[in-house]
Specification:
By secondary structure, this protein is of the alpha/beta class. It folds into two domains: 2-111 and 293-322, Quinone Oxidoreductase, Chain A, domain 1; 125-269, Rossmann fold (3-Layer(aba) Sandwich), CATH 3.40.50.720. The protein contains nine helices and 15 strands. The strands form three sheets. Strands 3, 4, 5, 6, 7, 14 and 15 form a seven-stranded mixed sheet that branches. It has a six-stranded parallel sheet with strand order 10-9-8-11-12-13, sandwiched between helices. The chain has a two-stranded antiparallel sheet with strand order 1-2. Strand 12, helix 7 (251-257) and strand 13 (260-262) form a beta-alpha-beta unit. The longest helix has 21 residues, at 117-137. The radius of gyration is 20 Å and the shape is globular. The chain starts with a strand and ends with a strand.
Length: 323
């Protein structure tokens, strides 16, 4: 079968097409014929060997943790009713950049009728994360919400969920193309955080008061600046560090500003609720409340180009591989 594999740690060019034997489903497992694969920013950092939150995979390895496709075979002790079903497959930390993947039954989620496989993949991980962040932050009518990286996979869904909750939303990103997308999603304002006065623009867009909720997926100088503009009594929620440095706010700083900080460690507690949040997002998508933004797709053989698009910040929405 065709795969894309990493044979050494480095830039996108180390992600190369290759061949591997078709895996066999063992006890409690199924074989999925993969049609679509999701990609995350973290996976690009694992490939570089610089990610600080995951163990390095043994080389060579096939990246990818989430795929969608059809169940083509079942192993011992697996209900044959899975055969032929459209599913999302949580493959694990690696193994999804391939034509076929073996998955534990516990890692399967049926894809409902009316939802395409690309949309299902785009919603699965990013959607459950976004729904969890919104739930934990407790957004409601009257909130003023700032979403960083608002044109990305998680960010674009955060914008939509915050709007659905009745909040005013300011989306921040870099470049005209991304700002246009943020406006298309319905945000009340779109701000380019490559501009030196971007936080003042945020303050003005929120009536001079600053946001009551900030979703920080960037970190670094941008995350720090976003914290400084957060309104007293607000919530500052950290979920990413695409700048390579997560925003860390001391208890003393938070108390002096009257801000509740939900740090990056909150993600470690999401596990038990992720299936529920993923199901809620599929329901919201079916109802038309949210829509995943699929900005670009690449064939499996061009997986390296897909990684490059994410790393060089040209990608909008979710980036997918089509197998």
């Amino acid at each position: 079968m065709r795969v894309a594999r990493v044979t050494r740690f480095g830039g996108p060019e180390v992600l190369e097409p290759g061949e591997a034997p078709v895996p066999v489903a063992g006890r409690g497992q199924v074989l999925v014929d993969v049609a679509v694969v999701g990609i995350t920013f973290v996976e690009t950092q694992i490939r570089r060997g610089v990610d600080r939150w995951h163990a390095r995979p043994a080389l060579p390895y096939v990246p990818g943790g989430v795929a969608a496709g059809h169940v083509s075979a079942v192993g011992p002790d697996v209900d044959a009713a899975w055969l032929g079903r459209r599913v999302i497959a949580d493959v694990g930390d690696t193994g999804a950049f391939a034509e076929h993947a073996v998955v534990d039954v516990a890692g399967l989620s049926p894809v409902p009728d009316g939802l395409g496989l690309p949309e299902a993949v785009a919603l699965h991980s990013d959607g459950s994360t976004a729904q969890g962040l919104v739930e934990k932050a407790g957004i409601g009518p009257g909130d003023r919400v700032l979403v960083e990286a608002a044109a990305g996979g998680v960010g674009s869904l955060l914008v939509q969920l915050a709007l659905a909750a009745g909040a005013q939303v300011v989306g921040a990103a870099r470049g005209a193309r991304k700002l246009e997308l943020i406006r298309e999603l319905g945000a009340d304002a779109a701000v380019d955080y490559s501009e030196p006065d971007w936080t003042e623009q945020v303050r003005q867009a929120t009536g001079g008061q600053g946001p009551t909720v900030v979703f920080d997926g960037v970190g670094g100088a941008i995350g720090r600046a976003a914290f400084e503009v957060t309104a007293r009594g607000g919530r500052f929620s950290v979920h990413g560090a695409s700048s390579d440095a997560p925003t860390v706010i001391s208890a003393e700083e938070a108390q002096s500003r009257g801000v509740t900080v939900l740090g990056l460690e909150q993600l470690a507690e999401f596990g038990p609720d992720l299936p529920r949040w993923a199901e809620e997002m599929r329901s919201l998508a079916a109802a038309g409340t949210v829509r995943p933004v699929i900005g670009q797709t690449f064939p499996l053989e061009r997986a390296g180009e897909a990684h490059a698009a994410i790393e060089n910040r040209t990608a909008v929405g979710k980036t997918l591989l089509l197998v």
